[in-house]
Specification:
Blueprint lengths: L2 E5 L4 H12 L8 E6 L2 H19 L4 E6 L4 H5 L4 E4 L5 H15 L11 H25 L4 E4 L4 H10 L3 E4 L7 H8 L9 E8 L2 E9 L2 E2 L1 H18 L1 H15 L12 H10 L2 E2 L3 H4 L13 H5 L6 H22 L12 H10 L3 E8 L12 E9 L2 E4 L7 H23 L2 H10 L1 H6 L2 H14 L9
Parallel strand pairs: 1-2, 1-4, 2-3, 4-5, 5-6
Antiparallel strand pairs: 7-8, 8-9, 8-10, 11-12, 12-13
Length: 465
């Protein structure tokens, strides 16, 4: 019987997705699922929901326990085979709000702020001290457990866990549906019969280096269509394109080709520049590079349809949605589950049964992507089986893609160093090297911004010296 410890079980919807998949997996049905959170009410909600789900879809075969607070964490982890991590240190309020509002006072605007940039750096600085505590507990009570990390900033968190000696792999959603969604946006998906693709890079900045239909290279047509449609959107403007699309929809139920790329202009423009499509969304990508969000060029925000402060709006919507979902999940005695596309249960199943499972994971770059730094955390194809997670060697990325990745890796390495050493200079240096922050602020402005954020987040941070 496997034991699965779920850290951050107050994220009940996500816990349902991951653990519901486990309850539907024959190899995991008899597992002991240990739920852990620091919020007693949310933990209780999750336990009630999973107890009902276990009864409804699994005949009550799984054992489910709940553990609240730091003192009970080792009990949750003891003899665990798998640890799933879904925590958010600082939550939306105050953590995320401060990550947006304080930089905004200094003239620095963001879209998502959970992966890179000043927001990603400080999310890592809040999270890694907690991960260090997790690592100490894991070494003490479940040293052989595999740590499946879903918490952002993915690359920095996973890099820190690996440096702390934990057997960790980072899991994200951005790679698995990327090729299909690109073809759909460009009106090419219907004709494709045997879609094949290859991708590597870093989390939220992995590159689709090959995409073909049974061996026929699709990139020439992709690039041609993308360039034509993006040029038309930029000429007409996003507002005009969407108004035309709405009129067309009302007239005959169809749409216009340009409307498919309106929400993806940054990625399309980046593909035009370097030749390859990046796996994460345009709102993410815009803040990982220095070319789109600029105080001196406010017209770029409208031209490329960049949603500033997007994560704040999403967080508010998720909080409102949870109020409705909570009643549905907790009140429903008939709750059920359909399998999701999350990797976690398939990885655990593969390790339990020795039936291999292929996925893209975030792992240490031990010669995997050969033109990226060896200490980086890279996102590559991996195989899970009884031996654990075995990443595959990708080789060289196209040089322009690797060059962009390296600008992000510089930030990640310095932010992790800051979190593990407590040195304030490393915080400054991580922010200085960030492509967006460095393009907008002077060195003195960056130091002042970091000092203000360190003070604002002091309750979650070590004493930076």
């Amino acid at each position: 019987m496997a034991k699965i410890a779920f850290l951050g079980a107050g994220s009940a919807v996500f816990a349902k997705n991951i653990l519901g998949d486990c309850l539907l997996s024959e190899a995991l049905r008899d597992s002991h699922i240990a739920l852990y959170d620091i919020d007693r009410r949310r933990l209780g909600d999750c336990k009630l929901m999973l107890d009902r789900l276990n009864a409804n879809v699994n005949a009550g075969r799984a054992k489910i326990t709940a553990h609240c607070g730091v003192r009970s964490r080792r009990a949750a982890l003891r003899r665990a085979n798998y640890v799933v991590n879904a925590i958010q240190v600082g939550a939306y309020d105050p953590g995320t709000i401060r990550d947006f509002e304080i930089p905004k006072k200094h003239g620095l605007r963001q879209t998502i702020a959970d992966t890179l940039g000043i927001g990603g750096i400080f999310r890592a600085l809040r999270t890694i001290p907690v991960l260090r505590d997790f690592a100490e507990d894991i070494h003490a009570v479940c040293p052989n457990a595999w740590f499946l990390n879903y918490t952002n900033p993915m690359a920095m968190d996973t890099m820190a866990l690996l440096r702390l000696g934990v057997k960790a792999v980072g899991l994200c959603h951005s790679v698995q549906g990327c090729a299909g969604s690109l073809l759909k946006r460009l009106g090419m998906i219907e004709g494709v019969k045997k879609l094949q693709w290859r991708a590597a890079g870093i989390n939220h900045q992995t590159w689709l280096t090959e995409i073909n239909d049974g061996g026929r290279d699709l990139y020439p047509e992709i690039r041609k269509r993308a360039a034509r449609r993006v040029a038309r959107v930029r000429k007409l403007g996003v507002k005009e394109v969407m108004e035309r699309a709405d009129r067309k929809m009302k007239e005959d139920g169809s749409t216009i080709p340009e409307s498919g790329v309106v929400g993806d202009l940054v990625r399309m423009e980046l593909m035009r520049a370097v030749g390859y499509y990046v796996t994460e969304s345009s709102e993410h990508t815009a803040e990982y590079v220095p070319w789109f969000i600029k105080r001196t060029r406010p017209e770029l925000i409208e031209e490329f349809n960049i949603p500033l402060d997007e994560y704040l709006r999403r967080s508010v919507r998720l909080i409102e949605r949870w109020r409705t979902q909570r009643e549905q999940l907790i009140a429903s005695e008939e709750i059920t589950h359909k399998r999701t596309r999350e990797y976690a249960s398939e990885i655990m199943r593969a390790m339990e049964t020795n039936e291999p499972f292929r996925f893209h994971g975030n792992v240490r770059n031990d010669g995997l992507v050969t033109n990226l730094p060896r200490r980086a955390c890279v996102e590559v194809a991996c195989m899970a089986d009884r031996n654990g997670v075995t990443p595959t060697v990708f080789g060289d990325l196209p040089e322009a893609c690797a060059a962009i990745n390296r600008t992000n890796i510089n930030v990640q390495l310095l932010a992790v160093e800051a979190a593990l050493t407590g040195k304030r200079d490393h915080v400054y240096q991580a922010a200085m090297m960030d492509p967006h922050t460095g393009a907008e602020l002077s060195l003195d402005e960056i130091r002042r911004l970091c000092d203000e954020l360190i003070e604002a987040h002091a309750e979650y941070l070590p004493d930076y010296h």
